[in-house]
């Protein structure tokens, strides 16, 4: 395969049928988004949002791009802006993985850290302040930009339909900005109104009404209900503990040769719960957003101790 730009490798990732015991003889298929060149599902978003800004005349040849991010979107945005030679500032809460922050800088972006305690809201505020001070700047703002769910509606969701012959009974995905879940759930329900859409969050995220608190599962969990959820019917919200998410991260590597990040571990834990609820032989589709290699500095494969 000869390619001329790394951008050509974004999307059309493999869909794997997991080879593991699944309740009720159901089948779980996972979209392996770590196979995107920047290593995550968010390469699609960077490419789509920057092109959308260009097409809408919001970005010209000298625009500075400023974006708040937990990391993977920053890498995706930096890959896209590098291709267009656009100066880029990414605002990242300190707590997110070293690996992601190193890669954003390696791509040429300027990184600004905000205090972990201020969460993603602190990064959003800082990005807006920087934009006010920077002439000819543009903040794609993944947390409210309709191009975010549109990315997944137009790319990943049709790939699922293309790759599977049978109807999808349930779609299971984690939510950070909520773009992945909302865009794919909307598309799949338009194709088949019987497809259930199940959103996954870690303990400490607010969707199921529990108190907000820090969690180790990285990339998912919300501090406010994503605005994109207004446009899609959510059949169920499953809250997965850090312990369960990391248990499946270890199991996926040990049993299936799959290096998955903790949000993928949570998606797998949730998919198995959904399999328990659905009739026999159901088809469940989920998304593995990134790889464990992004979290080595956080000891992602450490066995739990008695304290946790
Ligand atoms: N998993 C990981 C590892 C992520 O980086 C993200 C994006 N923050 C998500 C899941 C959630 O995706 P979305 O923002 O589309 O809800």
TrEMBL record:
Belongs to the cysteine synthase/cystathionine beta-synthase family. GO terms for molecular function: cysteine synthase activity. SUPFAM superfamilies: Tryptophan synthase beta subunit-like PLP-dependent enzymes. Coiled coil: none annotated. Transmembrane segments: none annotated. It comes from the Bacteria. Residues 7-290 form the Tryptophan synthase beta chain-like PALP domain. It catalyses: O-acetyl-L-serine + hydrogen sulfide = L-cysteine + acetate. Its EC number is 2.5.1.47. Its cofactor is pyridoxal 5'-phosphate. PANTHER family: CYSTATHIONINE BETA-SYNTHASE. InterPro entries: Cys_Synth/Cystath_Beta-Synth, P-phosphate_BS, TrpB-like_PALP, TrpB-like_PALP_sf. This is cysteine synthase. GO terms for biological process: cysteine biosynthetic process from serine. PROSITE patterns: CYS_SYNTHASE (PS00901). Keywords: Amino-acid biosynthesis, Cysteine biosynthesis, Pyridoxal phosphate, Transferase. The keyword Transferase applies. It holds the Pfam family PALP. Pathway: Amino-acid biosynthesis; L-cysteine biosynthesis; L-cysteine from L-serine: step 2/2.
């Amino acid at each position: 395969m000869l390619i001329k730009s790394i951008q050509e490798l974004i999307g059309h990732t493999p869909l794997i049928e997991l080879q593991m015991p699944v309740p009720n003889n159901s089948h779980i298929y996972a979209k392996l988004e770590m196979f995107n060149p920047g290593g995550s599902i968010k390469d699609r978003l960077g490419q789509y949002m920057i092109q959308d800004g260009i097409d809408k005349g919001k970005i010209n040849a000298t625009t500075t791009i400023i974006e708040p991010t937990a990391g993977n979107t920053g890498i995706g945005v930096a890959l896209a802006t590098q291709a267009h030679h656009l100066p880029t500032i990414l605002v990242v809460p300190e707590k997110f993985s070293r690996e992601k922050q190193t890669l954003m800088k390696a791509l040429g972006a300027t990184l600004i850290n905000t205090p972990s305690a201020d969460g993603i809201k602190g990064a959003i505020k800082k990005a807006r302040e920087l934009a006010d001070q920077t002439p000819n700047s543009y903040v794609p703002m993944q947390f409210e930009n309709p191009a975010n769910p549109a990315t997944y509606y137009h790319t990943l969701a049709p790939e699922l339909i293309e790759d599977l012959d049978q109807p999808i009974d349930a779609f299971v995905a984690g939510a950070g900005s909520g773009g992945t879940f909302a865009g794919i759930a909307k598309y799949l329900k338009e194709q088949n109104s019987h497809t259930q859409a199940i959103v996954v969050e870690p303990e400490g995220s607010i969707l199921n009404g529990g108190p907000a608190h820090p969690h180790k599962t990285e990339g998912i969990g919300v501090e406010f209900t994503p605005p994109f959820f207004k446009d899609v019917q959510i059949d169920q919200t499953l809250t997965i503990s850090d312990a369960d998410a990391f248990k499946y991260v270890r199991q996926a590597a040990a049993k299936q040769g799959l290096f998955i990040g903790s949000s993928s571990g949570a998606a797998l834990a949730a998919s198995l719960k959904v399999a328990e609820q659905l009739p026999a032989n159901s088809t469940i589709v989920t998304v593995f957003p990134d790889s464990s290699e992004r979290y080595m500095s956080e000891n992602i494969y450490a066995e739990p101790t008695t304290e946790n």
